[in-house]
Amino acid sequence: MAAQAFVNFGNIDGLSGQPTVYVCADGFCDIVNPINNNNPTFAAANFPQGVAFPGTSTGTTTLTTLNTSATSYAISVPAVSGTLAMTSGSNLAIIDTYRCGTAQTANANVVPASITGLSGAVAVGTYEFEAALYCTVASGTAGIAINQVLTTAVIGACNFEAVGMLAAGVATQATTTATSGTVLYSQANQPILVLIKGSFTVTTAGTFGLQMCQNTSNASNSVVNVGSTMKLTRIA
To answer: Per the confidence metrics, is the pTM higher than 0.70?
Structure first.
C-alpha cells in the first residue's frame, strides 16, 4: 500500500491556526506537527499554495493546487521498495532466512557436502542462528550428520544446541567449538526433523553455512529435504 499524507487546516492539533499533517501507511497514522517537526516544509505562509515532503531518495512531493476554500488534501506517496541488509552493520534484528531448494542426499558417504541454499553472508558482529532440517533417513546405521562450514568467516565465542526428532523420542547434541567443519549433529538414528539453535560472534566477515553427510557410511539414502531452512539474525 502506498503511504498517504493528509493535511487538515483545523484546530485539531491544539495550536490555533496551525495545520496538522497526518502521514498514514498500512493502517497506521502519525501526526506531524509543522511547528515541532522538521519532516514537512511549507512553500509559503499561505498554506494552500503548497506543502512539500523532502526526501533524498525519491525527491519531493508537493501540493501545488491553490484552493483557499479547501479543508484538507490527500497526497499519494509511492510505496517504499528495496531491501534492508542486515550485514550493513547498522541494521540489527533483521532476520535473513535461507531455504533448501534441492534435496541433499548422501549414500555410502561420510564426506560433508554443502546443503544447497543454506548459507549466508555474515559481517563482524553477533548473531542468533536457527535451522530446521527436514530429513529422510533410510537406515539407523547410516544416521545423518550436520556440520557448520565457514568460508573466509571466522567466529569466536559460540553455542550450538541440536535436537533430533525421532519417530519415538529425541536425540540431543551440543558444542561450543567454533572451527569450520564442526559437527552440530551426528548420530546413528533416523531423525524426521533436526532443529539447531545457537549464537556466535563473527570476528572476520565471510559466509556461514550448513553441510550434511552420513554418520556412518551405509548403502542407503540419508536426505535433507527441500524446504529445510536456516535463519541468521544479527543482534549486535
So the answer is: no
